[in-house]
Amino acid sequence: MADLLRLLLRVAEKAANVARICRQEAPLFQLLVQEKTGEDKNKKFVQDFKTLADVMIQELIRHDVRAQFPELAGFIHGEESNKFENGLGESVTVTVCSTEEETAKLLATVLDGDRTAASLLARAVHQDPATIEASTDGLTVPLKPSELGIWIDPIDATSQYIEGREEVLEEGRLSPSGLHCALVLIGVYLRSTGEPVMGVINQPFNNKDPAGTGWRGKHYWGVSCGSTNICSESRPGERSEGGLSVVLSSSEKQSVKEALTSVCGPDKLMYASGAGYKVLCVIQGLADAYVLSEGSTFKWDSCAPHALLRALGGGVVDLALSLQQSESGAQDPRTELTYHQPCADRSGADRWANHGGLVAYRDVSQLRSIMGALRGKL
Ligand code: 2IP
Ligand code: CA
Ligand code: CA
Prior knowledge:
It holds the Pfam family Inositol_P. This protein is α+β, with helices and mostly antiparallel strands.
């Protein structure tokens, strides 16, 4: 299944290209950042375009994966639905067609006839990405496509993507918001147990080319299955003393922040945008853990980065479930998030929410300290 990993790295790069082009090309950029003013139809249209970029990215990933691995068709899920209603109230199913021209024609019907924007977007979707450098040679993954399912978040942290603030990233430091928080997330799980086994993260806006040719991305990947645990990122070395560092959503509850101060060093409670970006911070060692007390993330947010954390010896647990465990008990593997079953008593996207909140961690002893600090306090 190393072939699947190489394919996912390639389609994620293609997706990142589309995300970059939507910001680089003036006719597309205009649609992305237009102020929501004017009549309702206009408001709806702008909203539509943002969703369209997401839908298109998801569909291109689905299209390319299905072409190479037909056994996966029917098991490639994502945040977006490809049934689309345009500004005129017409329903259009957005797909990647066999030629660029056909895709452009279809997109024009969604974009209220804006042919320039439709052609630019279609070109990006049909363009081959640059070759991805990833040391996957010699990697064998003991899995069959018929055992697997996929979760896609075409763009995570959309609000940061739209806002588009440019930050220069400092080595070894977490930057709370900006374009670099926007990520393409593709996670692979086992259909039988829901375990995340492979993940690809592409960060389309990692750094700006000094030569002025625009943004360059960065990719991260991991495989965790049986005795195969391999990740593009190495496990960060042990940190100096001074307590744990935890990254939170800026909207996190006061009671959680207060409870965590007992295990976190001063200034070690940090805030960042994007659920995917926060888990990436844990993967990179920019924070020891990510705690979220609300059910505001979904399977497509956590599946890919969860696989990378597992490959590094960590994981992502359901916070509510873990809190129910007895204090002395060893960490129960059943508290790890799984990806194969919807929540029966919910409907729509809510069926796939991580309802109990979550804790993403690299080190199980650090997870235990965090659970100890939170137990009885929420
Ligand atoms: C969002 C996005 C948000 C996050 C939220 C996700 O996904 O990652 O940033 O909230 O949980 O569902 P927060 O930044 O407060 O953690 P999307 O951008 O794909 O809607
Ligand atoms: Ca998301
Ligand atoms: Ca998204």
